[in-house]
Every structure is written in structure tokens, then in C-alpha cells.
Design brief:
- 2 copies of one chain form a homodimer.
- By secondary structure, chain A is mainly alpha-helical.
- The first copy, chain A, has 2 domains: about 80 residues, Orthogonal Bundle (Multidrug-efflux Transporter Regulator, Chain: A, Domain 2), CATH 1.10.1660.10; about 45 residues.
- Helix content of chain A is about 70%, strand content about 0%.
- In chain A, helix 4 packs antiparallel against helix 5.
- Chain A is elongated, with a radius of gyration of 22 Å.
- In chain A, about 15% of the residues are buried.
- Chain B binds a DNA duplex through helix 2.
Chain lengths: ~130, ~130
DNA sequence: GAAGACCCTGGAGTGCGCTCCAGGTCAAGC
DNA sequence: GCTTGACCTGGAGCGCACTCCAGGGTCTTC
């Protein structure tokens, strides 16, 4: 009978992370549970683990700090009854992401203007050459 | 005759940075020139300095690493003749920013979906209460 | 039963981008 | 002439998020 679930190497490849990062997330309390082990003590990631970590990577890559992800994980681990707090945490993050998107977009506009002016200048030079 | 230009405190306030950060940028080669000093050795930021630093903050807050900003500053300091390289640097940054915006936007979509499901769940609870 | 591949733990190390001193100079106000 | 406050320099320190060992176990393959 083959062990169920993915090895840490497979999970890392699936999720686009490294094995070190997966161990670090677990040690740091970002996961919902200790990842189950096979008889020799190696981690076997199950679908539920992978799905949760996928959410973690989404929160992380939208800029949520580790400590907030941990807080959210704590709330989920605590079980039903704190849905308002979870929602508030996600909504606050959403607002922050929207703020950042707006800021980056605005700055990008100014940078693209500068790119345009370089392109124009180089075009002029070519034409006059 | 009053000294011309802004003090470091004023410049920091104008730009939304700290005095420490301004000194750090200068020491690290992100500026186009050593900021001019008043007779007692204090920095006086002139309009040209402030405008350049404003560009630096735009590059920084769209995620360009310090070392790339420094590289761009070096090109501009080197004077005319490297416009292609400057343009390439900015274009590469633009592509990276667009990639990130797309990624964040996609992840945000998934997070908003989750927010929606919490809102629905809480609404159900209220209704049944 | 030796070699190689994979995994384990605890803990140290790294890169980035600031941020914060300590100790000192200088100009203005009382 | 003394305090106060803003600024100076060089350099140490910090928070974050990993990343990288050293030393050791286990499983498979030959």
C-alpha cells in the first residue's frame, strides 16, 4: 500500500515554493495542522494541506505579512464562532491591496510617460542620422 | 541673503521620506549628484534634486530594487549616449510591474471570492437567528 | 552491505532596505 | 556665553522572510 499524499519535494513543486519554505511555514504556525507523516517520519501533504497553503501563498504574494497570515490561521484553527474576525482581517487586507494597486498603477503611469519620452527622443535621433 | 533650497527635514516632509533615508540614498549612489551644502555643511535640496528623488520614490514604490535604481542613476550621470540602455532598464521594469499587477490582481480575485463566501455565511447566520 | 537519494531537526546565516545611535559641529535666541 | 535644536558622520542594529547548513536517519538499488 503506497503512502498517501505528496512528498515535500512534490508539494514544493506543485505550489512553486521550496521545501525549506514549507517547513518554515509549518514551524511558524501558518498551517492549520502539523502535516501528517509517513512511517519513517517524512511529511506527506494531503489535498487539504495543499489547498490551505495555496491560500497562504495568495495572501503572501498580495503582500500580507507572515504575522497576519499566522493570525488568520489561528482563527481558522480555533473553529467556528470567529467568522466576523476572519472576515474583518481579509477585508482589511483587501483594502490594503487595493490601495497598493492604485499607488503602483499611478506611479507606473509616470514611469511610462518617461519611457515614452525616451522613445521619442531616440526616434528623433534615428531620423536625424 | 537666505540660503536657497530646502533643508533635509523639509525635503523629507515634501517627499514623504525620512531624513535618514535621504542620507542613505545619497550615500548609496541613488542620486545624480552630492546634494549641495550651506556654509555650515547642511544639505540644501534644490528643485532638481527633489524632482530626481521623486522619480526614485516612484521606481522604489513600484518595486525596483535599490541596485537597479543606482544603475539607472549611473547611466543618467554618465550623460548622453546611453539612452538605449536607460530605456531598456525602464522597459524591463515596466514589464515586471505589469507582471506583478496581473499576479496580485488575480490573487486578489480569489481572496475576494473568499470574502464573499464569509459574508454570505454570516448573513445566513443572522437570518436564522 | 555499500552507495545514493530523499528526508529529518535545530539553528545559524543572508539580503534587503532602511533605522537608529553616539559623539560632534554650528547658528540663533535668551 | 549658554542652552536649544537642527544637522553632520560613521557605523551598528533591526525586522522580515526566507535560505542554508551540519549531522543524522531511512529506503531502495545494485
Amino acid at each position: 500500500m503506497p503512502s498517501t499524499g505528496q512528498t515535500i519535494a512534490d508539494a514544493a513543486a506543485t505550489l512553486g515554493l521550496t521545501a525549506d519554505t514549507l517547513r518554515y511555514y509549518e514551524k511558524d504556525g501558518l498551517l492549520l495542522r502539523a502535516v501528517p507523516r509517513d512511517p519513517s517520519g517524512h511529511r506527506r501533504y494531503e489535498t487539504a494541506d495543499l489547498r490551505w497553503i495555496e491560500l497562504v501563498t495568495r495572501l503572501r504574494s498580495t503582500g500580507m505579512p507572515i504575522r497576519d497570515v499566522r493570525r488568520y490561521a489561528e482563527l481558522v484553527r480555533a473553529g467556528e464562532g470567529n467568522e466576523h474576525e476572519r472576515l474583518a482581517l481579509l477585508q482589511a487586507h483587501r483594502e490594503e491591496v487595493l490601495r497598493q494597486l492604485a499607488e503602483v498603477t499611478a506611479h507606473l503611469g509616470a514611469i511610462e510617460y518617461k519611457i515614452g519620452s525616451y522613445e521619442d527622443r531616440l526616434l528623433q535621433l534615428e531620423r536625424s542620422a
